Inverse folding.
């Protein structure tokens, strides 16, 4: 993946259409100034509907951004929680955890211990 790809898509947000704006801005710039000029620009998101930049930054007011990277990070940081990737996704095997036979037996034993009441660990019963 190239550096351009890294700047185009970041944590579920597609910056492809906004990157030219961020690159051409004169920094520093406040959130209010940015929203006034570019707030209607939409950012596509991986797992949700597009969102206007103004919606993301509207409450930041006179917060000043010193660089393109700082502004991009703040936009990502202010995104709603439904923006980032698939929930509970892992690329490490199946999408559902597999419980081993030993884990099932331990769970059954623990449940049986709780039903019996008193502790079964001899370290806690002898004194």
């Amino acid at each position: 993946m190239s550096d351009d790809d890294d700047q185009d898509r970041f944590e579920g947000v597609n910056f492809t259409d906004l990157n030219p704006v961020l690159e051409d801005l004169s920094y520093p710039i406040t959130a209010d100034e940015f929203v006034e000029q570019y707030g209607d620009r939409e950012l596509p998101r991986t797992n949700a509907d597009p969102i206007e930049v103004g919606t993301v930054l509207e409450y930041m007011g006179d917060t000043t951004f010193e660089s393109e990277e700082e502004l991009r990070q703040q936009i990502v940081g202010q995104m709603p929680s439904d923006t980032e990737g698939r929930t509970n996704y892992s690329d490490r095997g199946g999408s559902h955890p597999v419980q081993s036979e030993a884990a099932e037996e331990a769970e059954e034993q623990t449940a049986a211990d709780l039903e019996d009441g008193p502790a079964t660990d001899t370290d806690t019963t002898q004194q």
Summary: The longest strand covers residues 48-52. Strands lie at 9-10, 13-14, 29-30, 42-45, 48-52, 64-65. The radius of gyration is 25 Å. The chain is about 45% helix and 15% strand.
